[in-house]
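Title: Comparing notes on inverse folding

I've been comparing how different people in this forum approach sequence design from structure. To keep things fair, I'm posting one structure and asking everyone to reply with a full sequence. Here's the target:
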C-alpha cells in the first residue's frame, strides 16, 4: 500500500474560486437578503441594493464594515460567483448594468444563487481533491467546470442532478472522517 504524502497546509483555492470584487457589479450586495441578526447591520429584502452600495458597484463603507455592524459582509465569500456571472452577463447582454436594464437584472438575480452554489461545489471538490489526492474528485470538478457557460440557465433538474453527483463524490470523505477518531 502506498503511503500518501502529508498535505501542505494551508491548501489554497484556485484563483477562479476567489472573489474579485473589482470585476463584479455588487451582486452580493443586491441579490441576497440581509438579516441584521446575522451580522448585516440592517434587514434588507432580496434583490434590493444595500444602502451602502455606490453607483460604481463598490461598498461605501468597506473600510468600516466591522465597526458599523456588518460582520456578515466581512465573512461572506462568493467564491468567484460574482465576477463569473458579471462576465457572463457582459458577454450575453453587452454589459452587466442591472440598474438600467431590467432584463439583465432579472437574469443576474435569478442566476446568482445557482452560480454561487456551483462555485461552492467546485471549491469543495477542489479542496477535497487536494487534501485526499483522489483523482475522481478532480475529474468531477473539471466536468462541472466544463458546464460553466450553462450554469446560469440550468433547470432545477440539472442543478439537482449535479448536486447529487457532488454529494455522492464527497460522501466517502465525510464517512472516513468519522473513522479517524
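Reply #1:
Here's my take.
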Amino acid at each position: 500500500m502506498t503511503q500518501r504524502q502529508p498535505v501542505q497546509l494551508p491548501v489554497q483555492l484556485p484563483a477562479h474560486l476567489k472573489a474579485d470584487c473589482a470585476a463584479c457589479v455588487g451582486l452580493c450586495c443586491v441579490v441576497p437578503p440581509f438579516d441584521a441578526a446575522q451580522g448585516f447591520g440592517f434587514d434588507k429584502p432580496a434583490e434590493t441594493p444595500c444602502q451602502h452600495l455606490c453607483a460604481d458597484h463598490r461598498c461605501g463603507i468597506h473600510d468600516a464594515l466591522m465597526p458599523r455592524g456588518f460582520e456578515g459582509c466581512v465573512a461572506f465569500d462568493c467564491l468567484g460567483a460574482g465576477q463569473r456571472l458579471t462576465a457572463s452577463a457582459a458577454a450575453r447582454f453587452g454589459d452587466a448594468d442591472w440598474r438600467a436594464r431590467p432584463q439583465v437584472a432579472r437574469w443576474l438575480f435569478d442566476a446568482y444563487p445557482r452560480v454561487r452554489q456551483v462555485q461552492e461545489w467546485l471549491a469543495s471538490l477542489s479542496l477535497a481533491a487536494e487534501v485526499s489526492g483522489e483523482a475522481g474528485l478532480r475529474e468531477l470538478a473539471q466536468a462541472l467546470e466544463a458546464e460553466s457557460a450553462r450554469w446560469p440557465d440550468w433547470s432545477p433538474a440539472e442543478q439537482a442532478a449535479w448536486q447529487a453527483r457532488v454529494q455522492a463524490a464527497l460522501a466517502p470523505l465525510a464517512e472516513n472522517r468519522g473513522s479517524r477518531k
